[in-house]
Amino acid sequence: MTTSHSSKSTFPAGPTVPFDLNTTTECFQNLAEWVKIYPDIFSLTQVKRKDIAYFVNQPDYIKQILVSNNDRYYKGVGFERVKMLLGNGIIVSDGPFWRKQRRMIQPAFGKDVIAQLVDQVKLANIKLLEKWQQLANHNEIINITESTNELALEIILRALFSEDLDTIFEREGGNPFSILTDDSARDLKLAVKFRGLTRLVGDIIQQRRQDKPVRNDFVSVFMDARDKETGEPMSDKELIDEVMTLIVAGSETSATTMNWIWYSLSQYHDVEARVQAEVDNASYEQIPGFEHIMELPYIRQVTEEVLRLYPPVWLFTRKAIKDDKLGEYDVPAGSDIFISPYYLHRHPDYWEEPEKFDPERFTPEAIKQRHKFAYIPFSAGPRRCIGDFFGIVEAQVHFGLMARHFRMEYVEDQPVELAPEVNLRTRYPIHMRILPRD
Ligand code: HEM
Question: Which tens digit of pLDDT belongs to each residue from 49-62?
Answer without folding.
Answer: 999 999 999 999 99
